[in-house]
Amino acid sequence: MISIQGKGVSTGVAIGPLYFYQRAKSTIRRYEVEDEQAEWNRFKDAQAKAVEQLGELAEKARAEAGDEAALLFETHQLMAEDLDYEEAIQGLIQDDKLNAEAAVTDTAAQFAEMFAAMDDAYMQARAADVKDVSSRIISILTGVVQGGIDSPVPIILAADDLAPSETVQLDKSKILGFVTEGGSGSSHTAILARTMGIPAIIGVGDQLKPEYEGREVIVDGSTGNVVVDADEATRTRLLAKQEEQRKMREMLEQLKGKPNETKDGQSIRVYCNIGGPDDVHAVLSNDGGGIGLFRSEFLYLNCDDYPSEDYQFEAYKQVLSDMDGKEVVIRTLDIGADKQIGYFNLPAEENPAMGNRALRICLNRPEVFHTQIRALYRASAFGKLGIMFPMVTSVWEVKEAKKMCERVKAELTAEGIPFAEDVEIGIMIETPAAAVMSDRLAREVDFFSCGTNDLTQYTLACDRQNADLGRFYNPHHPAVLRLLKMVCDNAHKQGIWVGICGELGADLELTETFLSIGIDELSVSPRSVLPLRQKIRETDVSAVREKVLGDLLSDENAL
To answer: Alpha-carbon distance 64 to 58, whole Å?
Structure first.
């Protein structure tokens, strides 16, 4: 038996074979082939498999988001079988005796350069398409599976860490749990695990060896322990713990339909954070009262080019329709920092966390922002929508964003396209500047939602992705909590509601604090709804408020 210690970031016990994430190779071997026809046949087999995969993706996209979404993959199918593309690859294999991977790589570079040099914007955009199609074919040739998992059974997924673009492509039905070498509690792997309701452990370093692949592991997300080839006593103990957790879950099921109300009658809304339409089922099955954060950037991460207005509209419409009148707050595009998208061609930055990201990109690229806002307002006709702008630091930014909303509403009115008139406009409070200016910002919007992951990072000058800063990155720091109280007070003075959509919202150690300072809404991962409801219903705010606020503001608690 081998015991490995990391840090648990999503609770639960899971057991299954260990599988290392397969990332595409960054370098392609180049060599001269002896049998040109055999190499050409290798390419044709890979091409056929790519076309088949793209067809399956097209059908999946059509079922989930409509014909517009499927069109991208159908276009890629045609490109994969384009005669000019084929002939160029064939020439390199048969005339230059180049291996198939290198021939596809060179052809992709040649065609991408040709498309990028064209004057027509549509044709320029095809450069990204040919690169993506070629990458798929190369992955097949090199044995690397798109999405990183090639297993017939569910597995415990091991990786160094996963980028947002990689988490989007994962076949989530195959994952029982996560174990990563690095990462942090607010990494996208951790957030995904909590959304899925599966165990996750980070920070195991180099303790996971390649030779452990395929061996049975048990992960305990509450303790951060990973056990390889457990002995009978350990296996029995952990499986018993898994059964206890299952029974606890069954007990919590009895809270479905019950109000989120404290013993002394104070109510709070409990909503859910999601990354896309597929997550709505988890919200409804866990009795979430609404969606407090739809991370719309995952629609962009899931595309090889800027998602069209219709593609976004179908996704937003589906979520609003499925939620059947319950409130859905959709955050506008939030990329940059740790969420990079190749086709945006953002320049490299020495400090991306404080660089060109989120609302700054939208205001600098109004054509991208305009497309999303149109899709959002069109979708508003199908449910109760709130639009939320991230990474705000100044009043003028909010005013500029609101101007875009007014422009879109005027356009839709002129075009006779229906939209809701009661869409709420809000902002995320995730910078100290926004918190300090919350008295003034509250006059411009209908609600605040506090992004505690970034608010903690910026307040403490502590990179939340850096595992080495674990004890310094402290979301319970009085500076963070005092800012939240300030924001709450300023919001209520202007008659607007305030929520928390960061991971801190599910921290049961702080539920009494949030209730005491007057937070109106907590948005958490779907699996956190019922445990949070239980904690709320066990709390008597009137009995703890004085002590909570006293501790928060006392000099002795200033760390």
So the answer is: 10
Fold category of 2-22+148-251 in CATH: Glucose Oxidase; domain 1 (3.50.30)
Q: Alpha carbon of 24 to those of 28, 139, 188: distances in Å?
A: 10, 6, 19
The pLDDT tens digits of the residues spanning 503-526 come to 899 999 999 999 999 999 999 999
Say what the pTM is: 0.70
Output the DSSP codes for 124-137. Answer: HHHHHHHHHHHHHH
The catalytic residues are 188, 501
Exposure on the CB side of residue 497, measured as CA atoms within 13 A: 12
Q: Which CATH architecture has domain 36-142?
A: Orthogonal Bundle (1.10)
Interhelix angle 36-65/121-142, nearest 10 degrees:
120
- Kindly report, residue by residue over 229-277, the tens digit of the pLDDT: 999 999 999 999 999 888 888 888 999 999 999 999 999 999 999 988 8
Q: At how many degrees (to 10) do helices 541-553 and 478-493 cross?
A: 120
Look at the domain 258-557 and name its fold. TIM Barrel (3.20.20)
CATH 3.50.30.10 placement within the chain = 2-22+148-251
Neighbours of 199 (CB within 10 A): 28
